[in-house]
Design goal:
This protein is of the alpha/beta class. The chain has a domain at about 5-55 and about 85-115: Ribosomal Protein L13p, Chain: A, CATH 3.90.1180.10. It is built from 5 helices and 5 strands. It has helices spanning about 15-25, 55-60, 80-85, 90-95, 105-110, and strands spanning about 5-10, 40-45, 65, 75-80, 115. A 3-stranded parallel sheet has the order 1-2-5. It has a two-stranded antiparallel ribbon with strand order 3-4.
């Protein structure tokens, strides 16, 4: 099976709409060969991620949390801090990652995602 490539232009679009379109393609649901138990060879490229429309209220209000595993190890990072530290690509990647089912196919599917600022 020949790999398919989907290119998504994120210019002046909201984060959620771009991410859900990318997740839908990564799952293989745009392909005629879709089966839910296989990761199809589908590549998704999100271009112009820096031109996403993200309101200031969302950048300051959205908080990403993680737990280190140690007592008192709850870590919180706001979206604007994450963009400053790791770039908009990390925010887009985390958003798409959250829309992919948590199973053994998640890792191979996410390896097919490329985000370009």
């Amino acid at each position: 099976m020949k790999p398919e490539t989907y290119t998504i232009d994120a210019t002046n679009r909201t984060l959620g709409r771009v991410a859900s379109e990318a997740a839908h393609a990564l799952l293989g649901k745009r392909s005629a060969q879709y089966v839910r138990y296989q990761a199809l060879p589908v590549k998704v490229v999100i271009e112009n991620a820096a031109k996403l429309h993200i309101p200031a209220r969302r950048k300051e209000g959205k908080v990403y949390t993680r737990y280190t595993g140690y007592p008192g190890g709850l870590r919180e990072v706001r979206m604007d801090e994450m963009i400053a530290k790791k770039g908009i690509e990390e925010v887009v990647w985390k958003t798409v990652d959250g829309m992919i089912p948590r199973n053994k196919l998640r890792t191979p599917r996410m390896k097919n995602l490329t985000v370009k600022a």
